[in-house]
């Protein structure tokens, strides 16, 4: 899986992409004028960060293999807003996933699990924890922890849609 942004991203969107790159240990490719079709040749799974009014506003996950697209509207807080520093996942891609959700949220979590989380090397021994939490204003939120300390970024999922085509 690779991370990229929409064309001409704002500084905040680039910062969010770099936060995800550091935390998830997934490569971030600066897109520039590169068409999506070229990126599909690099990897079968693309995480595209879209913008709304200069802020990260959507996550679109392309699954070229199965010709499916998962689109979600989001709200984010960057690492520097949560903990004031850049924290890297030096253990590799090992992530522990902790779910604190209810039955109503489970179908949405399953979609994210299928499209995003299965591409992470999940390991119960990791010191980086990806915690899925119930959020009263949103479907759910994704918060990263190192031990018990929030390290960010915080991703709040507003809505999710699944499409049967790539573009």
UniProtKB/TrEMBL annotation:
InterPro entries: Brix, Brix_dom_Rbsml_bgen_prot. GO terms for molecular function: rRNA binding. It comes from the Archaea. SMART domains: Brix. PROSITE patterns: BRIX. GO terms for biological process: rRNA processing. Keywords: Ribosome biogenesis. Residues 1-167 form the Brix domain. Probably involved in the biogenesis of the ribosome. NCBIfam families: PRK00933.1-4. This is Probable Brix domain-containing ribosomal biogenesis protein. It comes from Methanocaldococcus vulcanius (strain ATCC 700851 / DSM 12094 / M7) (Methanococcus vulcanius).
């Amino acid at each position: 899986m690779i991370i990229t942004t929409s064309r001409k991203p704002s500084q905040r969107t680039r910062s969010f992409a770099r936060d995800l790159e550091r935390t998830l240990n997934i490569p971030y490719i600066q897109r520039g004028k590169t068409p999506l079709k070229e990126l599909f040749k690099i990897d079968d799974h693309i995480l595209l960060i879209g913008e709304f009014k200069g802020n990260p506003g959507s996550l679109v996950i392309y699954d070229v293999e199965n010709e499916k697209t998962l689109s979600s509207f989001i709200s984010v807080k960057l690492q520097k807003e949560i903990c004031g520093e850049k924290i890297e996942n030096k253990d590799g891609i090992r992530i522990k996933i902790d779910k604190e959700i209810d039955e109503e949220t489970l179908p949405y979590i399953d979609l994210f699990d299928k499209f995003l989380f299965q591409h992470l090397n999940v390991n119960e021994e990791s010191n980086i924890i990806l915690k899925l939490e119930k959020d009263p204003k949103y479907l759910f939120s994704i918060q990263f922890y190192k031990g018990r300390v929030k390290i960010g970024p915080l991703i709040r999922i507003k809505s999710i849609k699944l499409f049967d085509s790539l573009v």
